[in-house]
Amino acid sequence: MTTHVTIIGAGLGGLVLARVLHLHGFPVTVYEGEASPTARTQGGMLDIHDYNGQLALQDADLMEEFRGIILEGRQALRFVDRDGNVLLEKADDGTGGRPEVQRAELRRILLESLPDGTVRWGHKVSGVRSLGAGAHEVTFADGSTVTTDLLVGADGAWSKVRPLLSGAKPRYVGSSVVESHLYDADTRHSATAKAVGGGSMLALAPGKGIMGHRERGETLHTYVSLARPQEWFAAIDFTDADAAAARIAAEFEGWAPELTALITDADTAPVLRPLFALPAEHRWERVPGATLIGDAAHLSAPNGEGANLAMLDGAELGQALAAHPGDVEAALAAYERPMFPRSAKAAIDGDKLYELMYGAESPQGMVDLFSGQG
Question: What is the pTM of this model?
């Protein structure tokens, strides 16, 4: 008898897992707290790597659909100084292994690949408990419950499933990101659009940075990074969009106006996103009938690998279950064994990247790295 798999969380990792399991004939249900696929915006652009994220999509048999949502030219990259002078520029010649897509579009093709009813929307988890012998009970906010013999936590940073396996809790990494958007940028903000270019632009300095990313059409997505304690951000009233934007922009006094305009001229209110991480080498002892994927397993500060690793986790777990029919524990052990060192290496490499981006040698460290000198 094929085990019914219960997945908590309809992010990219959980959906890839559901898709791979579906291809192998496993019954699967995904429970998601959001009310619908459009309940909130799904973030910006993702670069999907040929050594992890694309491998997951191959296992999910969705490469053709993936190629259909790639935004050409978005792998272009430039570093500029605080005055807007270009320090290094790399064009997108179509040969890079990290094509860019919109997260929402990637999630859409995954959802469309699943049978109707696979994802149960509006099921926010309030608690999970072990029933023994590998069985678990999941309780939802409305008081309803479900019992399962195979529970997968794909529920992100503040996973409700993680406490079954680990006592680790995310810690604030000392930096936060403030996001906003400019629309019709080429028409209404031509100097800023020119500064960003056709892909990504990074203006970095010790402890801070302004990053612009060109999405579909003339939309620019801004990420402002500041190394400040949470209390510093708590003193800003983000319900007053203009005042909050002005306060964030004040940290970049003297920078080129075409760069600070990404903050001050935004068409959307600034959104604060504190950054948290689990210990780099987070792992757990094998717990019968349960495991974790994605940020629930190995949350780290954004380093370009998070979504890719989550999808690879989902694909590899699905393949492990298919390769060990009737032996869930062997499958979970086979999945976790390579996942632990892989995610630890990504986290450690990400910490090194953050030091290059925002440490004392910024921005030269990043320029050297991308010019082949680092």
Answer: 0.96
